[in-house]
Amino acid sequence: MDEDEITAAAAGVDDRIARRLRQRREALGLGEAEAAARIGITRAKLVRIESGRSHPTTVLLGRICTALGLTMTSVMSPDDPAAASDTAPEDAAAPGGSTVLRRIDQPVWHDPGSGYSRRILSPSGTGSPLEIVEIEFPPYADVTYGPTGAFGTTQHLVVLDGALTVTVGGRTHHLDAGDCLHMCLAGGGTVHNPGPAPCRYMVVLERGLAIRPAADRSAG
What we know:
By secondary structure, this protein is α+β, with helices and mostly antiparallel strands. The chain has helices at about 5-25, 30-40, 45-50, 60-70, 70-75, 90, 215-220; strands at about 110, 115-120, 130-135, 140-145, 150-160, 165-170, 170-175, 180-185, 190, 200-210. The strands form 2 sheets. A 6-stranded antiparallel β-sheet has the order 1-2-3-10-5-8. Strands 4-9-6-7 form a 4-stranded antiparallel β-sheet. Strand 6 (about 165-170) and strand 7 form a beta hairpin. Helix 2 packs across helix 3. The N and C termini lie far apart (about 50 Å). The model is unreliable at about 1-10, about 80-85 and about 210-220 (pLDDT under 50). It comes from Caenispirillum bisanense. This is Transcriptional regulator, XRE family with cupin sensor. Keywords: DNA-binding.
């Protein structure tokens, strides 16, 4: 892609996010004021986001998705999964079925706050409970995620290049290339790039797992 095509693709993802957030709110029967109160922003701010006139940061987008029962991947994925893959999603779920999402067709979203980029690697519409994303984190950037509720997101994070510091559950983990961290973000957490070079990492997420207290997990 040339620079104009990249810019157009990014704008397409932003437009898709705005439209899907509005559609989801309306499907839940929530008015703008009620939804804004759930999220913790003003009605005017929500209207600007849903109209595409304001682009939320990853932290705010995460809060909106949590309030509306969405995942960030679901609001960014292509409108027509079959058009962006080599196999129709209904065929992928059949015995022997498969789906390929080519890199050129993978949606990429840029966080206006931290400057990080989020690339969706996993094809949508397959029925899989897993989501796979690739993140490129700028030098010295950090993002703090809020709680996601009792049914949170468990994930494996694998550092591909660079270094990363992740704080979750009161513990801080320093990760280098090749390191893999399993964690649950039900209570929130912070991701930080401590170095002068970008960090690239992959995340495999599984939504909707019930989070048991630490005491229960150690006893089991």
